Amino acid sequence: MTVFCFVRHGAYGLLDQALGGRGDYALNEEGRAQAAAVARAVASRPVVAVVSSPVARALETAAPIAAAVGLAVTAEAGFSEIDFGAWSGARFDALAQEPAWRAWNAFRSMARTPGGESALDVQARAVGAMGRLAAAWPEGEVVVVSHADVIKAVLGHVLGAPLDLMRRIEIEPGSISRVAVWAEDARVLGVNWR
Question: What is the per-residue pLDDT for 176?
Fold first, then answer.
């Protein structure tokens, strides 16, 4: 059995203000403290790999975790942030006026970001990456540092919940959500642990 410890990257300057998207934003002081707390939490676990979204804030979160378990960080595009296309970097207060933004948040199974990805695209690539990692490490724990909506998409897949309801799951910065995967099944072990 492979246990995935999905970690949302730590806090950064645009958090709750704008869509950071795949932009290279550094963690702020709170985010660095969150990354250090996760590193302490997993230091004694049987971690076999530390994998991260290639986005800077995720890689920065993964670095102290990898150091704590004595492993290198492997970047995996399957866990990258959603490609928000034209919305990348846009402030939430400005997006709130756009009908397409409201549709994206209400009907993610069918909506697409302008010039970017759909939630189904994100879910497919993240679940595919998880399958590859489970095959590579069929035992032990794999820490994956990613982004809130990517983690929600994986959890929704395992729970059999539609993407349209993924806003009902809270994934805070620096939180851990755990999923067990084996050949016959997968289970959510915990969500949004801090």
Answer: 98
Using one digit for the tens of pLDDT, what is the confidence trace for 122-144?
999 999 999 999 999 999 999 99
Grade residue 74 by pLDDT with cuts at 50, 70 and 90. very high
Q: Report pLDDT for 57.
A: 98
Work out whether the CA dihedral 26, 28, 29, 31 comes out positive or negative: negative
Average pLDDT, the chain: 96
Residue of 60, 7, 42 lying closest to 172 (CA atoms)? 7
Instruction: For residue 139, indicate whether it is catalytic.
Output: no
The range of the structural domain enclosing residue 18 comes to 2-193
| Number of alpha carbons in the 13 Å side-chain half-sphere of residue 13 | 6
Burial category of 41 from C-beta neighbours within 10 Å (exposed 0-12, middle 13-18, buried 19 and up): middle
Which CATH number goes with the domain that contains 120? 3.40.50.1240
Catalytic residue among 9, 60, 141, 147: 9
Q: Tell me, yes or no, if 9 is annotated catalytic.
A: yes
Report phi then psi at 187, rounded to 5. Answer: -140, 145
Q: How many domains does the chain fold into?
A: 1
HSE at residue 180, side-chain half, CA atoms within 13 A, is 8
User: Which is the catalytic residue, given 60, 76, 81, 141?
Assistant: 81
If DSSP codes are grouped into helix, strand and coil, which group holds residue 134? Answer: helix
